[in-house]
Amino acid sequence: MQTSQPLTVHIRGGLSARRFPTILPRSIWENTSLPKEIHFDMSGLTFIEPAGVTFLSNVGFWLNSRGCKPSFINVNRNSAAIKYLDDAQFFMQHCGQLLTEGAEPRETTRPLQRIDDEDTHAWLRMNLIPWLSSKLGMSEASLVEFQVCISELFNNISDHSTPNTGSIFVQFYPNKNEIRISVADFGCGIPENVRKFAGGIDDGSAILKAVTPGFSTKSTPRNRGAGLDILLMTAVTRNGGTVSIFSQTAYVVFSPNGTTVGHAVFTNAGYCPGTTIDICLRTDTIERVEDGPEEFEW
Asked: What percent of the chain has pLDDT over 70?
């Protein structure tokens, strides 16, 4: 059902991994009272993190795909959060133009992008990895495990989302020795997919089930991917970073716990259609490897 009366949503405070899913009521996500227009009042936005950028962008695409037009009002161009969004190319994507002439991706970011599943490997190989190699001053061979992390993010989109498209945004924090990668999709979500194979469990338990080694929602062993467990092993166990997964009503944070992966589950923290995954990788634990000699075919 669609209502003709526009809805105004006031964004207050920051959009971080823990706060972004509360910006819209669940009835909107469940499509029970979707208006023709939603105005996002940006006057109260104080800060935004990479996960907030991808989530807000995904909200815009999700609404458009369902015939609801999003717009952004009361935008303070002098706000640091708005400048960050503008430089990330958010307004170019959703409004067709920059807010400020000359706004461009910062040296420490890769611009917000919408990437189809079939284009992900080329984007990783030709765009992200060379950029990271330059920023970190290390060979591309040193970033193989990093590439595995991003590949698993997109594998998750391929497994759980239709269309197989996701929003991605990358931020490098040189002073913190961190890289944050956030990917969001608006598929059915991990819990809904998992319950097809393991019914009767809540959203948090479903996310934990999805990262269990060997578990897959693919129909046969032949078409199963490596899985989210590989993502956790690479990002948390080996790198010492963290992975946060938000899907439907559950938010789960995975972090190092000795030699294992610990987790904290937060429920009723808002509602996230599809899945948003936020990875924080440490750059000071990446092993430096020299690139091997190029192989030539004659």
From this structure: 86
pLDDT digits (tens, 9 = 90+) for 166-188: 889 999 999 999 999 998 888 78
Inter-residue contact 138 to 286 (CB < 8 Å): yes
Homologous superfamily of the 2-282 domain (CATH): Histidine kinase-like ATPase, C-terminal domain (3.30.565.10)
Cβ proximity of 15 and 236 under 8 Å? no
The two beta strands, 2-3 and 34-35, are parallel
Three-class secondary structure of residue 218 per DSSP: coil
59 vs 225: CA distance, rounded Å: 27
Cα of first residue to Cα of last residue in the chain, in angstroms, is 63
Burial class (CB in 10 A: 0-12, 13-18, 19+), 147: middle
Minimum mean pLDDT range among 1-10, 176-185, 234-243? 1-10
Separation between Cα atoms, residue 33 and residue 65, nearest integer Å: 15
Q: Provide the pLDDT for residue 3.
A: 60
The domains of the chain are located at 2-282
Tens of pLDDT, residue by residue over 66-98, are: 889 999 999 999 999 999 999 999 999 999 999
Predicted TM-score of the model (pTM)? 0.88
Closest CA to 164 of 197, 195, 186: 186
Q: Around Cβ 246, how many Cβ atoms within 10 Å?
A: 30
Tokens 């970190």 sit on residue: 136
